[in-house]
Amino acid sequence: MVSGKQSKRTRRDRARTSLVTGRSTPWGTIAAVLVVVLFASGVFGYALVESQAGNARAEALAAFTPSAANQDPSTQIPGVSEQTYEGGQHVGPTEQVAYTQSPPTGGAHDQAWAACSGVVYDQPVRSENLVHSMEHGAVWIAYNPDQLVGATLEQLADRVQDRPYMALSPYPGLDQPIALQSWGHQLKLADAADPRIDQFVAALRANPNTHPENGASCDALGPGQFDQDAPPPYQPAPPASAAGQPGVRAESETAEDEPIGGGS
């Protein structure tokens, strides 16, 4: 016969056992913690990979960064052509210049520069304004709108968007999908992933050794001069043989009331 004391102990032990076994494992909390840990690990891993990739890109472009000993690193880039132009030659806002390069890389240009502080234009822009932008140190990336669309075009836009001394615009009739222009320099390419694009930009964007007006502005001038939201309409450049005809000036010619070297 079991005593009352033993019965109470038994009941107490059973109650304790029931209480312990009745507690459920907090799987929901564990899962939530695991999700947070995995997410944090993923973010850290992504940041680390991006940082390493950025460092690798910087190292790859180091040889194309201007310096006192290497004033024009674009000479190391295969395919870059060079021309020599006088700066400060201006034409009127309704005049055209018979450029010898297509797209042009320098020469006479409009008094007003095209906004070039990382601007992506969705319509062709008057060349005479963009040439002035290059005189200030901008790199102008032109593309053939019939050959470059979608993700490949986005690759170019990402390189330009909100980046000082950069502009991107379509250029109808371009003989290659892509053409990069800096004052007196040009590189034509077929592939938006070509590493020479970044090399060209690193070598020539705002390079004080390769354009006439170092430190000049690339900001929008606004209505009445160059309206970024409603730029002057684009017109195909007339042939060099048209220079001297009404409204057409030679690449090395300036407006009659604008002396050579007139500046910005």
TrEMBL record:
Domain of life of the source: Bacteria
Comp. bias (Acidic residues): 253-264
Keyword entries, A-Z: Membrane, Transmembrane, Transmembrane helix
Transmembrane helix keyword on record: yes
Transmembrane segments: 27-49
A Pfam family hit: DUF3105
UniProt region (Disordered), positions on chain: 211-264
Composition bias, Pro residues: 230-239
Protein name from the UniProt record: DUF3105 domain-containing protein
Taxonomic source organism: Pseudonocardia oceani
Lineage: Bacteria, Bacillati, Actinomycetota, Actinomycetes, Pseudonocardiales
